[in-house]
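hey so u asked for the seq, here:
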Amino acid sequence: AQGIGLATARRFASQGWYVGLYDINAAGVESLLACGDFPNACGSACDVTRRESIEAALAHFSGNTGGRLDLLVNNAGVIRDNPLAGFSDEDVADVLATNVTGVFNVTRAVAPFMISRRSGRIINLSSVSGEKGGRGQTNYAASKGAINAFTKALAVELAPRKITVNAVAPGVIDTDMSQ
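ran it, structure tokens below
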């Protein structure tokens, strides 16, 4: 419901795609659905770190699309920058849970829909930090490096089923999160 995810959803919606808007921020999703920019959309709150939340969101989406799911954009992400010695356990756990475990959770839930149709596209949001870490970003760089490895391995695994898996690795984008 914000940043890169919102821009991505707007682009797909403008091209006529049926879009699912899911974000941990329920009020943000509700506001977007009410604004009129997404006439072909559904959405609700979703915490990518909790499988039951993902399953509920996926049931909601597939109920609105007759079970069709062509594209997944794994975009949920958080940043908790600090020098290594300054990280709290929560700083590290939150970043890894959202940025890595969230991608695993959502992809595991969505992949069976694509596998059964032998068609689909998965796009994971990585970062240049995954290849070239930045000062104070060891947890974030590690999470995005993991996404790069995950993307490569999953691409090999799903290619025989005609499902492509790619990652986009932008640099700093002016969003609320990067502020």
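DSSP finds five helices and five strands in the chain. The longest strand covers residues 120-125.
lmk if thats what u needed
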